[in-house]
Design goal:
Length: 74
């Protein structure tokens, strides 16, 4: 996963959220390198705990990305 500066990601994701898109923040663990996805949709955190090794990552410093959930309109 490619990481981008925190503020840029929040700005871009915010534009999508304002149009009704659901996003989930993602980051890479600073210790073990595993990809992590936050449980809370449309919320961005500056730090995160790895579910695998328990290490805390400074997301603001290390960067992040997000996953988009698209649903079909009927």
């Amino acid at each position: 996963m490619e990481l981008h500066p925190f503020d840029e990601v929040v700005r871009e994701a915010g534009n999508r959220i304002s149009r009704g898109v659901t996003v989930f923040q993602q980051f890479t663990c600073a210790r073990c390198g595993s990809k992590q996805t936050m449980d809370e949709p449309n919320v961005f955190y500056t730090g995160g705990l790895c579910e695998g090794c328990g290490a805390e990552t400074d997301i603001r410093a290390d960067g992040c990305n997000y996953m988009v959930i698209l649903t079909r309109r009927r």
